[in-house]
Amino acid sequence: MADKLQLKVLTACVYVVLIKVVCISATSPWALRSIRELSSQNDVNVSLPAGFKAYYYTQTLDHFSYKPESYNTFKHKYLVNWDYWGGNKGSYPIFVYTGDEQAIEYDASGSGFLVNLAKQFKALLVYIEHRYYGESMPFGDNSFQDANTLGYFTSAQALADYAELITNLKMNLSAQHLPVVAFGGSYGGMLASWFRLKYPHIVIGALASSAPILYFEDITPHDGYGVVVSNDFKENSESCYNTIKDSWSEINRVAAEENGLTKLSQIFNTCTPLNSSGEVKNWLSSIYMSAAQYDNPPRDRIGTVCNAINEAPAGTDILGRISRVLNTSAAATSSCYNLYQSTPSNHSGWGWQTCTEMVMPIGWEANQTMFEASPFDIKAYTNSCRQRFSIEPRPHWITTEYGGHDIKSVLGNFASNIIFSNGLRDPYSSAGVLENISDTVVAIHTEKGAHCLDLQVPYSTDPDWLVAMREKEVSIIQSWITGYGAKYSTKLLAKKPVRK
Amino acid sequence: MADKLQLKVLTACVYVVLIKVVCISATSPWALRSIRELSSQNDVNVSLPAGFKAYYYTQTLDHFSYKPESYNTFKHKYLVNWDYWGGNKGSYPIFVYTGDEQAIEYDASGSGFLVNLAKQFKALLVYIEHRYYGESMPFGDNSFQDANTLGYFTSAQALADYAELITNLKMNLSAQHLPVVAFGGSYGGMLASWFRLKYPHIVIGALASSAPILYFEDITPHDGYGVVVSNDFKENSESCYNTIKDSWSEINRVAAEENGLTKLSQIFNTCTPLNSSGEVKNWLSSIYMSAAQYDNPPRDRIGTVCNAINEAPAGTDILGRISRVLNTSAAATSSCYNLYQSTPSNHSGWGWQTCTEMVMPIGWEANQTMFEASPFDIKAYTNSCRQRFSIEPRPHWITTEYGGHDIKSVLGNFASNIIFSNGLRDPYSSAGVLENISDTVVAIHTEKGAHCLDLQVPYSTDPDWLVAMREKEVSIIQSWITGYGAKYSTKLLAKKPVRK
Fold this sequence. Notes:
Two copies of one chain form a homodimer. The first copy, chain A, is built from 19 helices and eight strands. Chain A is α/β, with parallel strands linked by helices. The longest helix of chain A has 26 residues, at 464-489.
């Protein structure tokens, strides 16, 4: 179950984007993430955000091998916004968004803060799509065929893509001397911070928003995600929290009765008969998780869910209250609830990534959260990946390649110019960097706010704490650029001592 | 020609090792490097240095892809010296040698300084072989078959090998908390510094001896290598330098005469008739280059060459003097000189590496050095690689992956704990880091001394400047370990702020 839940809730800022895209719909958005799971990585019917133009770079298939096929190339999509750039004559920066698990248009639409930044810094905005998402398909329509075509789908290859593309783009713009800053949210935030760590010669700094880089191996307690969701709900309404917490055993009790599934189908008014109680439990869990992960102002997602539960007519029993939650979700049709059958797909990009290297051990024992017990089970996880992709996860690779253990000790005297930003209502903040690592590798977090909030379009109605968070980020980024300019202009480049 | 020269002189500390191994031979050693070119990467008939035991780790074939064959494994050889280790209960360090382009026994024999260090620090010594050298052949005897088997032969894969092996070794020793320091010389020195840059969570620091990490693209003038060789000779003897400088046109003049090659064969007393004057010019060039690169005390290699030239009987002409140089080389047999026919082999590990990513543009125009003009020609270089391995070099990859441009600016506020050590007589020092980059990324160089001298066994007869160099290195390494221990014992590990 941990696997399924993880697949449902992880990890993109896309949700924010979808909210923006679909917020005029009558359908409440929180379960859209689930719908997207199956369909979206190839969904390129997205309109280009205003001000952006699409380009394609001839990208190397395999940066780390020299087999004959390594030299194959593919059309790697990226977006550029030229509107605010001061040009290559001064020291105007280039802001690069390290694309994540979605078509790059979603990233561009969902991180409007960067457009504001570009205006302020006269920056060139470049959004680079992640390979195997959107249009950046190394083997075209056959990219998801099997491990032979999917095999090049790794975070290290994606980072090397960014390095190669940026280097070539700067050369073509005669802009080799300009500072580049990386930005990203969620998985893209992880990539932004890793990009700074692995390619400091390409980017002078990184803003990593809501990047759960510590959700690997045993660095973060497995239940971190679930505990934050539970606390979010408890904080909103103790009775709501208790109703949810009590609902699982109630569902199980009814399911165990004679014709229990039929009864549950009636209680939850599902369009088709339930095959297992897990279908409704998974759907409900994903609603709670999404509500917490994307509980960003001005919306009040948890409030909406809890109101549905709490404001049921007096005397409504637990499952009656809980069934009202479905009405807030994408499952709602005019006459019944169409619970999505979450058969794991072998055409999900994020599914592939979680089945290879992005093994986040999310789970919990009984009584740690408001959820039913669902411990992380690496064996079941591995079996599911074998079935789905005929692939074996490498659960230790991320920490071997990027670190994570003892991060303060390791990066305290190594690395610089990274901002880890988090909203503590975001369940993924449990695995974020929440404490300054050094003077220049810093953590900015707010008590309020959830996933990737700082990257969204700023509004005049934004709360003060959000305004303050962004101001702090701007001031730090300004200091990186100023510092770079100072060094560049005094030409502190390596000079060789002359032999006497 | 640049290609051939490069292949001949690059880059290992092995030469030092071979000197040790063969120094009782009557044959002077400087051309042995060339002989080794064809034969040695599979030469595992080397005895294990005293105190070392050999082990094999089941290594991942491809760390950066998830194709079915990526999961194949191979027996990855490493050596351990347990003699001095204080054990896993204290904070005794692990010193790792990042193996380079030779069987690992050569590395262990050639870097006796580490044994002294191990005694001093009660350290565990681990020497890890580089994949595709020695016994660490991913496809056994077929490893050099073609690009399908050679394709996984890259520096990034090698670094990931080291990361994975060290992580597993520490786990097996219950020594996860112990600090690891990386050491390497020449190409191995490049690997040691890159390892610290890319895997700061695995190693707390690196000593990179004679690492020409700046000999890529246009960072270092192409003629840097040749200029240092020439200066080394000029400093030893102006007349020797002039004789060499004048010899090329003299060789060309004779070669252009009727039966010129026959005359040259006679002058140089070659065992077989020359096919081109290039054969003798290449051989001579490699002698001069090797003499400079390995001109380490107590030996006086350049002096030996120059004495042969200068001490010819009065009236000996230029080529007569130059022919005496062959007598100092491995070409000498009892009755003639057996010039090695340097047909590029497709079984040379270093050949493969220079034909894929290690593209060092070594060359010079007329009059820049004592050598004949031999500009670096990327087209000829590429053609030669196509013929040799059916492979296309990626001359920009190293700087894309590891940087190098503006290194002081880039690493000045990023990275820590790297020592770049160089002897300025070493031609490769022209592309070394010779200036401190920051307080903790430092350059140590000596006016005297050539390639990898500091890593060799210390002797009581070592000159003061060498003793001082090593003392400085020890003191810096000590400070890394002390600093690590202090951080570790106060447990400055990341703590999460508690939400109110």
